[in-house]
Amino acid sequence: MKVLVPVKRVVDYNVKIRVKADGSGVELANVKMSMNPFDEIAVEEAIRLKEAGVATEIVAVSIGEQKCQETIRTALAMGADRGILVKTDDAVEPLAVAKILKGIVDEEKPELVILGKQAIDDDANQTGQMLAALLGWSQGTFASEVKIDGGKATVTREVDGGLQTIEITMPAIVTTDLRLNEPRYASLPNIMKAKKKPLDEKAPSDYGVDTAPRLKVLKTAEPEGRKAGVKVGSVAELVDKLKNEAGVL
Amino acid sequence: MPTYTAPVQDTLFVLRDVLGYERFSNLPGFSDASLDVIEAILEEGAKLAENVMFPLNQVGDQQGCTRHDDGSVTTPDGFKDAYAQYREGGWMGLALPEEFGGQNLPYVLHTAVGEYMSSANMAFMMYPGLTQGAMAAILAHGSDEQKQAYIPRMAEGVWTGTMNLTEPHCGTDLGLLRTKAVPQEDGSYRISGQKIFISAGEHDLSENIIHLVLARIEGAPEGVKGISLFIVPKFTLDADGNPGERNGVSCGSIEEKMGIHGNATCVMNYDEATGYLIGEAHKGLKAMFTMMNEARLGVGLQGLSISEIAYQNAADYARERIQGRALTGPKAPDKKADPIIVHPDVRRTLMTIRAFNEGGRAFILWSALKSDVAHRSGDEKERQEADDVMGLLTPIIKGVLTDKGFENAVNAQQMYGGHGYIEEWGMSQYVRDARIAMIYEGANGIQALDLVGRKLPSNGGRAVQAFFKEVGEFCESHRDNEQMKGYTKALKKGLNDLQAATMWFVQNAMAKPDNAGAGSTDYMHLFGLVALGYMWALTAKSAQEQLDSGASDARPFLENKLVTATFFMERLLPETALRLARVQAGADSMMALSAEAF
Questions:
Q1: What are the counts of helices (DSSP H) followed by strands (DSSP E) for chain A?
Q2: Domain boundaries, chain B
Q3: pTM summary value
Q4: For residue A171, cis peptide bond before it (omega within 30 degrees of 0)
Q5: Interchain contact A233–B (C-beta under 8 A)
Q6: What distance in Å separates the CA atoms of residue B255 and residue B368, rounded to the nearest whole number?
Q7: ipTM exceeding 0.95?
């Protein structure tokens, strides 16, 4: 079974994000970038499936500027077998990403696509679902456990009320949640090997996809700072404030 | 709670831009390690340091190691798992030859990653660090059979190593050592005696511990000419080369120390333990020096490492701690007080540490590159020149970087006021951990003597002359460069002081050796200042060139480099004049009092 793992290059989770002075977006110049943490979990899951003898080949895909190649190399160093870079300097939105991924799925014919439930830059949480819809495949989103057996995938999902376990038919889309696994560190020998693994370069036009943005960013602003709290004198006052000022009771 | 972020961007800048890493691509192991691979490796090493080792630093400090009644030793919680991750990542074998399972990557890369890991957890990194030293000695002086038997598993990290020199009555002067070796019919020896202060002497991280032990073969000459080096494995190897019978070596106790609590510092008792001679009989000191030179660079790196993490936290604290107002009026009018970073004296402290860290990083990576050339170049002259410089720089790296590392840790602690004295903030641990680096692997006073007494005169002063020439030519060739001349003028002044001090020794220390001894520590620091000044001049040149070529993304980074270079030249390098004056003062007032007067 072939597994496709899309990986996104995002601002590193440790970086304190700053909004650009003109409000057009966040500052990306000279900022540390790394693989979206949810995608790291996706890569790890694919590798575990391969180690368990369920998967046979792992293909890592990234869509974006040339430097996304480094993100693919990270996936290759962790244990993916080969990479595909779909190069574009546009800011690609989830729908365009899903369309490109559909094109790759049509070519590569994987039985499973594992991807992060969302990317930590714009937190859209859409790509996996859109891809499932475009392909007409089943989907198991927010996975905290995945078992694959006999053409079926059993996926435990992290939903608001707790955990929900579903069985879906393969081929399928799985999006990962934080508790699915703990990604490994790449070993030195594997970092060296990653350089020699095949990495194809494509363009969105190869899949007939127009990546022109459909959304317009009007303004980016920092959230308002947290305001100082107030001390209440009694329980009655607290209840009163919750009721009348906060309006939560 | 302290935090740590590995300075990957700075390491890359130093390697790529300041030192011109790509010029060395003809050396074996360098072609595989192109800059993109280097970056990937630094990033991965940084992750391991930040996420695995750093969280155990305070745990290790608080728990320490535990010796049990049967002589076994357990390391602090989490060390075993962290070591397993280090081992599985293949980090131990980074720069080791491929034939023994290593990656044969540049030593300079090993050094760069080592900085991150020692910053994150110095006590933890000593377990692999001692293993590196032991492997260096076996590789340089062991027989092929010994290399095959021990190196592959040590390079894999499955076995670790130690260095056993010190005895209760014998530290610096190894000629006094008493541990004895009795030859056996099968060619092995029976080793008996006691060794103290043995870092990583006993622990639960590896399947076997390979002790390298200095001992005296029965009937050997007195003094250092009668010392031999032996391999004494904790478990002797069976016919298949696997750990077999328990050897007669055990941990008698572990020391209660000021710092590095996470590392087990052991008293090791040898009771007719089976040992195997490395190299020739009575030539053990030479073999030991291979190990010590490696270890001295590692210890110098520890000085830098602690200075870096102490700086990062002090800088964060200075930005966050609000107290009082700026001399020039409120800078944070919306707050009750300004962050203390508005004060010039706080800046003085932070800039001093920063200028040392960045310059020191360049210095140690520059030296590590020399080590790569010395070991890997195909050109004999190039190898010899690099080896000369390495020999000269080793005591400076060890002595200066650890003296300054401790001083910087103390000054970073000072930024915290009273909180710096409270364990929770972490600064106390940095001070305590940094302190040992000035002492072990040859106390810094010994480093200074090694520099002045041994390294300066060696081969008619060939190494020091080459250093003077390189720095002098750099100053000369940039003298008329408007943007550079501010830096090179200051550097030239420092170089003149260093040359004057060297000349003073030539004229005044031959007839009166106390003059050399009296000025040695000041000379070592004078040398360190000029070396760091040279690094800052190279840094400024590289930053300026990139700014001129219009590099956009890195602009603030490069501009900060220029400012820090200026700060170093204006405020730190002038110390050379003071150091020179002390050297030239000679030994008279230092030696005049009778011993009873003290």
A1: 6, 11
A2: 287-444, 458-589
A3: 0.93
A4: yes
A5: no
A6: 32
A7: no
Q: Which CATH architecture has domain A2-245?
A: 3-Layer(aba) Sandwich (3.40)
CA distance B214 to chain A (A): 34
- The CATH class that applies to domain B287-444 reads mainly alpha
Q: Could you give the CA distance from residue B536 to residue B474 in angstroms, rounded to a whole number?
A: 12
Contact B40/A191, CB-based, under 8 Å? yes
Span B196-209, mean pLDDT? 98
A14 and chain B in contact, CB less than 8 A: yes
Helical packing angle, A127-135 and A94-108, nearest 10°: 50
Q: Do A185 and B94 touch (CB under 8 A)?
A: no
DSSP assignment letter at A15? S
Nearest Cα of chain B lies from the Cα of A190 at a distance, in angstroms, of: 9
Structure tokens at B187: 């060619």
Q: How do residues B311-353 score in pLDDT, each as one tens digit?
A: 999 999 999 999 999 999 999 999 999 999 999 999 999 999 9
Helix axes B122-141, B79-88, angle to 10 degrees: 40
What would the two tokens of residue B589 be?
Answer: 């007032």
pLDDT (tens digit per residue) in B79-104: 999 999 999 999 999 999 999 999 99
pLDDT attached to residue A245: 86
Taking Cα atoms as reference points, which of A109, A127, A74, A134 lies closest to residue A3? A109
Give which of A119, A156, A162, A118 is closest to A140, Cα–Cα: A156
- In this predicted structure, the answer to whether residue B552 has a pLDDT above a threshold of 80 is no
| DSSP-derived secondary structure for B140-196 | HHS-HHHHHHHHHHHHHTSEEEEEE--BTTBSS-GGG---EEEE-TTS-EEEEEEEE
